[in-house]
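C-alpha cells please, single chain.
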Amino acid sequence: MRYQLIGVNHKSAPLDVRERLAIPESRLPDACRDLTAHPGIEEGMILSTCNRVELITHTTNGSADLRGFLHHHFHLTADELDAHLYEFRENEAVRHIFRVASSLDSMVVGEAQILGQVKEAYAVAHTIGTARGQLDQLFTRAFAVAKRVRTETEVGSSSVSIASVAVELAKKIFGSLQGKNVFIVGAGKMSELAARHLMAHGCASIFVSNRTYDRAIGLAQKFNGQAIKFDDLYNTCDRADIVITSTGAPHAIFRREHGEQFLARRKNKPMFFIDIAVPRDVSPEMSKLDGIFVYDIDDLQQAVTSHVADRRKEAELAEAIIASEVENFKTRFEARRHTLDVVPTIVSLQDHLETIRQAEIDRVRGRLGHMTPDQEIAVEALTRGIINKVMHTPITTLKTAAKDSEVTTVIDVVRRLFNLHDKETGPASQAHRESPRKSEPEPRH
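Here you go.
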C-alpha cells in the first residue's frame, strides 16, 4: 500500500492556522487537480471541514513531498505550518481514514456530519478523476467501516453535532432560549442543524440570510422563519439576540464597526455570536465590545468535554472494530496485489497455447482435405478441449499461489516450463527481469 496522508485538525492546529488552509467547495476540484499534478502522486483527494484539512494520496513509490505541496499551494513557510502537521503512511493512513469516517477523530465524538463531509469530498475527487482505483478501494471500505461502527456501537447514539453544542452553549449563556430571536447566516447543512435545535429549545423567531436568496427562503420556510436578503443583513441583524453564522466567505463578514452599529440600535442590549465557520465569519475585534459575546469553533471544544467522557467506552469498542478492519483491509490488499501479479502469466500462457493450436490446425488442414461445417466445429472443439485441459493445472496452481508468499517462484517455474519469457509483462515479470538467473539469457524487449 502506498497511501500517504498529511493534514491539520482541531487538536493539532489553532483556528488561525486552519482557516489559512481552508478550501471552499468551489475551489476543491482545482485543488485536487493541483495535488495530483504534484510529483510522485498518482491519486489524491482533499478533505476540508471546519475542524480539519487533510490531503489523502496514493503515491508512485510510497513517498511524496506533501509538505512541499502545502507550502506552495497555501503560500505558507515551514515555520508557519510544519509544527501543526501530522502525517501517516500505509496502514496508519488507512486507520486514520477509518477513524475520521467513523467520527472517532471529531471534536464531538460520534457526530454524524463528518461521514457526509468525507463522502462529498470523495465524490468531488472521483468525479474529476483524481480518486480512482486505490482511493476507490480505500474509501469504499471506509464508508462500510463507519456503518459498522454506527451499527455495532452506541458511539453515535444521541444526536450530537457542532451545531447542537453551539445551541447548548447559547442556552447556558441565556439560561433559556424561550422568546429569543435568532439570526442564521448561511443556509448550509450546519445552519439547518442549528435552526432545528434552536426551534426545539423554544426560540421565538428565526431569520435566515444567505448570499443565494432562494436558499435562504428554502431554509426559512422549513422553520416558519423569515428570509432576509444578504444586502439587508447589516440593517436587520440587530433584531436578533443570537447570531449563528456558518458561511463559506474567505474573510470576516462581521467586523467591529458592525458590532458598534448593532449595539447602538439595540441600546446596548447584548448580542451573542456563535461562529462555526472556517475561515471565521466574525472578526476577533468584535469580542472586545461590551455587550457582544463571540464564540468560535475552538471555543466550543470546552463545551464538548462531557460528550467525550460519556462516549469513551463506546469509542473503545469502535477502535477495536477499526483495528480489525485495518488488518482485514491489508490482507485483502495483499491478496489483490498477488492476484494481479499472476494475471500476465496466465494471459501469456493462454496466448502461447492458442498460437500453437492454430498453427497445428493450419499445418494439417491440407492433409484433411475439404471439411464440412460440422467437421470444422468438431476439430475446433477437440483442439480447444485439449488446450483447456493442458492449461487447467498451471492456471489453478498460479491462482492458488497468488495467496502465497512464494508466488514469484511459481510464476517463474510456469514461465520456464512453457518458454514464456519473451512475453513477460507486469509486476511479476518485472521482478524476474531485475533478478535474472545466470543460466538464462536476458529477456528481449
